[in-house]
Design brief:
- With about 725 residues, the protein is α+β, with helices and mostly antiparallel strands.
- It has three domains: about 140 residues, Immunoglobulin-like, CATH 2.60.40.1180; about 350 residues, TIM Barrel (Alpha-Beta Barrel), CATH 3.20.20.80; about 160 residues, Sandwich (Jelly Rolls).
- The chain contains 14 helices and 42 strands.
- Strands 1, 2, 32, 33, 34, 35, 36, 37, 40, 41 and 42 form an eleven-stranded mixed beta sheet that branches. An eight-stranded parallel beta sheet has the order 5-3-27-26-25-24-23-22. Strands 10, 12, 15, 17 and 18 form a five-stranded antiparallel beta sheet that branches.
- Strand 38 and strand 39 form a beta hairpin.
- Helix 9 packs across helix 10.
Length: about 725
């Protein structure tokens, strides 16, 4: 600022002078710096392995309309590479018949199912089968618990694969449990357990001292009722006087550690029918002096029942129960349709509600067909099913043993957590440890089997639909970076890669999924994940399924890159499609070439200190430097200087032709209504070529993603900060 301007400011207003000075100082300081020191490479990756998308269960009527060449061509034009096949049946507490053909363990098409491993008929569709011995009141789908369904002919039964016969460990190391959530505090001093076979000979009845043992497992403790310790259980219809006077409780747990070994209603021909624990119905309340129990639970064969949660479920089922509404796309259709691009694919095996024999048959089938497998995910979201880490790990090792007998080269991993932003905590073990992941790692290490973990996978849904603000964009880079560090702090073995195998803004959609917010979030999220050392990220959901009515029907959105009509035909791309292209076709060089990623800092902040412009730098196989910049300021453009600097303070800048591609609020605007909405304008990205020199600044439009690509030249001064 020259003297004349300063004097004018003083004469007009000292306050105005300060404001102008601050603005000019801020403008002069707007710099993005890339640390190009070779030893400081933050990550390296190949797009064909690191940038993928997920295909999940879809409506049966959609399969034949979506898996067609015209639709798939539009999907593939987004540029995502490798594929992960998502398993939805375990979220529904269903057994997955990946092959509709197979054998049952009992006559009459019932028992434990194993798919046919011999390729014969073309598998176009596959389905889930609800488990009749479920203990969850509110899983995904329409299932419900048999513990409070009011029917004494039905029963919950735990998973036999968590007993000594299969784990090789004492059952006390894998206690099975059920929790009753009465949704509010009740006065309790008695319980009636109508046991099925096998019943618990040794068990505890406990109440929770904290707020919520499921959501806040480390903030409270389970306390055994004075009369709640049973060491010689006889089964049958057992009524226990838990205390002389009623105690206030919302959550009650039955913790089972020794089984009778008696066989359930399916008979003794299969030993699995005689392992674990079974309960027909639960009753809780108070007793009066005449010995009568006054039950406070609601017993009904639907989701209006009193809520129960269980440790595991026996995968026994029968053919009469099948969910044909949702289609786990048949493996043959999936692999031959072209959606995989011919690249190795991550596939799942069912584990929480299945058998190792069925998993072995699945892998055998795929390998006989010659379908390339990159990785195998074991089970699905055990944290969402409240599986304790030792139980998941015990199943993991059984399945790993069986699968590696088929193919020792298989790369197995998990645990496929739900989208989380912090460490997952569970009830403390005997050593006081509450970290789910830490205890999982420790179990594998204690059994000398950590080598069976080839990768760690989890999901990322950082925000809550209908409760988001624009300012949430400021948090994404730190959220995804933090969760990677959490797994490292939990004991992730060195060299084990981390994959986010399913991700989007939130677990439920709203308008943020289709407006420009989504484009900025995706670009920032993918860049931050790779910058922090993540190894592969998968877009979800690859398949276009139209708009859903979020926020109680007032804010339509979609997980997809396209809107569709009622016949699943694509109408127009969403902002997520354009950001996908910015990542896959502009920022990276498409193909399997090695990309090196370098650390970047930005001093472009708002008054509250939020970083408004984040940037992610690549040195591509074609020799170009590529910088993806996300301007999260929805009101203002930002001119920025780009500096490439090493530890010797040598500075380079873009020089010569620089390709600039921008997608933002000027290229795309979503117009919503309660019936749906549309984008106008709806792209494309803006393109230009600049001739850069050491004085060039690049203007980033408001609410935009910009990719700059070009070559570097050293600054004549060669020293950072020189004028």
């Amino acid at each position: 600022m020259n003297f004349r301007n300063t004097a004018s400011c003083l004469l007009a207003s000292c306050f105005l002078c300060v404001v102008i000075s601050l603005v000019l100082t801020t403008a002069e300081a707007q710099t993005v710096r890339v640390d190009v020191t070779p030893e400081h490479v933050a990550n390296s990756f190949r797009p064909t392995e690191a940038l993928g998308a997920g295909v999940d269960r879809i409506p049966l009527k959609a399969t034949d309309k979506i898996f067609t060449e015209p639709v798939l061509k539009q999907i593939l034009s987004a540029g995502w590479q490798t594929i992960t096949y998502r398993q939805n049946t375990e979220l529904y507490v269903e057994a997955w018949h990946w092959n509709p053909k197979g054998t049952w363990s009992e006559p009459g098409n019932k028992g434990y199912f194993v798919g046919d491993s011999t390729p014969t008929e073309f598998i176009r569709h596959s389905f889930g089968y609800p488990l009749p011995h479920a203990g969850f009141s509110h899983p995904d789908g329409t299932s419900y618990s048999r513990l409070t369904d009011g029917d004494l002919n039905t029963y919950w039964k735990s998973n036999p694969y968590l007993t000594k016969a299969y784990t090789g460990e004492e059952d006390t190391l894998h206690p099975q449990w059920v929790v009753v959530d009465m949704q509010g505090v009740q006065d309790i001093n008695a319980i009636r357990i109508n046991w099925a076979d096998p019943y618990a000979k040794r068990y505890l009845v406990q109440y929770w001292t904290g707020t919520d043992p499921i959501e806040e497992a480390a903030k409270g403790s389970w306390v055994t009722f004075p009369g709640g310790e049973i060491n010689t259980g006889k089964g049958g219809n057992a009524t226990l006087q838990l205390s002389q006077t009623p105690l206030p409780a919302r959550f009650v747990r039955i913790w089972m550690t020794e089984s009778s070994g008696t066989c359930d209603t399916h008979g003794s021909a299969d030993r699995r029918n005689c392992l674990g624990y079974g309960i027909r119905e639960l009753f809780l309340g108070t007793t009066t002096p005449d010995g009568r129990l006054h039950d406070v639970l609601r017993h009904t064969a639907d989701r209006g029942q009193t809520t129960t949660i269980c440790s595991s479920v026996d995968p026994w089922h029968e053919v009469s129960l099948v969910n044909e509404h949702g289609d786990q796309v048949g493996f043959d259709l999936f692999f031959t349709s072209g959606i995989t691009r011919g690249l190795p694919t991550m596939i799942p095996v069912a584990m929480l509600y299945d058998t190792p024999e069925n998993a072995v048959a699945e892998i055998t089938y795929l390998e006989k067909r010659g379908y390339p497998i990159s990785y195998v995910e074991m089970g699905e979201e055990p944290d969402g099913k409240h599986t304790l880490p030792e139980d998941y790990a015990a199943l993991y090792l059984q399945w790993a043993t069986a699968l590696h007998r088929v193919d020792p080269k298989l790369k197995l991993g998990g645990p496929i957590f739900e989208g989380v932003n912090k460490d997952i905590e569970v009830w403390p073990d005997a050593r006081g440890r509450t970290s789910w992941m830490g205890r999982f790692f420790d179990y594998l290490k204690a059994h000398n089997r950590i080598s069976d973990l080839s990768f760690v996978s989890f999901e990322h849904y950082p925000f809550t639909a209908c409760k988001m603000h624009w300012s949430d964009l400021y948090d994404e880079a730190s959220l995804v970076t933090n969760i990677l560090q959490v797994w490292r702090d939990d004991g992730l073995p060195p060299g084990v890669p981390m994959f986010i195998t399913e991700s989007n803004i939130a677990a439920g959609s709203d308008e943020s999924f289709v407006d420009i917010f989504a484009a900025l979030w995706w670009s920032d999220y993918v860049g931050a994940f790779l910058q922090a050392g993540g190894n592969a990220v998968y877009y979800f959901h690859y398949i276009p399924l139209g708009l859903s009515q979020g926020c109680e029907g007032t804010s339509p959105g979609t997980f997809s890159m396209f809107t569709t009509d009622a016949n699943y035909q694509i109408l127009q791309p969403t902002s997520q499609y354009f950001s996908s292209q910015m990542i896959n076709l502009e920022w990276v060089q498409p193909g399997n070439g090695q990309h090196r990623m370098f650390p970047v800092t930005s001093d472009i902040r708002d008054a509250a200190g939020h970083i408004l412009v984040t940037a992610y730098a690549l040195h591509r196989p074609d020799g170009q430097w590529s910088l993806m910049l996300v301007n999260k300021d929805q009101e203002n453009a930002h001119p920025v200087r780009i500096e490439f600097q090493d530890t010797s303070n040598r500075v380079s800048r873009f020089a010569g032709p620089v390709n600039m591609v921008t997608f933002g609020s000027e290229q795309y605007q979503w117009h919503s209504n309660v019936k749906g909405g549309m984008a106008d304008p709806d792209g494309p990205a803006a393109r230009s070529v600049m001739t850069a020199d050491v004085a060039t600044t690049f203007t980033l439009p408001k609410a935009s993603v910009t990719v700059l690509k070009g070559q570097l030249a050293a600054n004549p001064s060669s020293v950072a900060g020189a004028k």
